[in-house]
Amino acid sequence: MNDSQPFDIRGALIFPGLLDREAQARLVEQIRAVVAAAPFFRPVTPAGRPLSVRMTSAGSHGWVSDRSGYRYERRHPEGMEWPPIPSLALEVWERAVANARAPECCLVNWYDAEARMGLHQDRDEVDFTQPVVSISLGDDARFRVGNLSRGGKTESIVLRSGDVVVLGGGARLVHHGVDRIYPGTGTLLGKPGRINLTLRVVT
Ligand SMILES: O=C(O)CCC(=O)C(=O)O
Ligand SMILES: [Fe+2]
Known about the structure:
By secondary structure, the protein is mainly beta. 13% of the residues lie in helices and 34% in strands. The protein has a single domain, classed as Alpha-ketoglutarate-dependent dioxygenase AlkB-like (Jelly Rolls, Sandwich).
């Protein structure tokens, strides 16, 4: 991993290039093992709309969404337990938020060329004193940060492979989203697309 001085965008802390290329490649291998054990699925909003992002999880809890709502579950929708959180993701957590509790969920998001994620808060967890740590791999993405309440001014930055974002402290519940990815800008995955990991304390 690299030394990386964080900068602040509307309270979100960005660590540019925290993962060097070798760490990124090792983490991708660990994610492939997660996906082999717990395949990607496409969650549906409570209103019945499929998300454009495909997801799976690692850890004691995984994030799911369907007609019954957004929530964490102990099992994948197909019934298996979630695999363990990749060791390299745990190392990133230690580097970025050393004093936090241990993460219980590593949500794995897969963005194909058309996928995006609208502005939202991460608020399905119980303890908002605990941060969320996000790791970007593969293609560049335009990441947007807004406010604690809906609406108002927003700012965006491009996240690149190896960048890490921390939503913590007073910015734990800030609205954020991904406007788009830039297909083919990354060479890590061998095909267009972006992986994002978010590590969360759930209980
Ligand atoms: O893909 C990203 O950079 C953000 C993902 C995110 O906000 C989420 O999974 O809740
Ligand atoms: Fe989020």
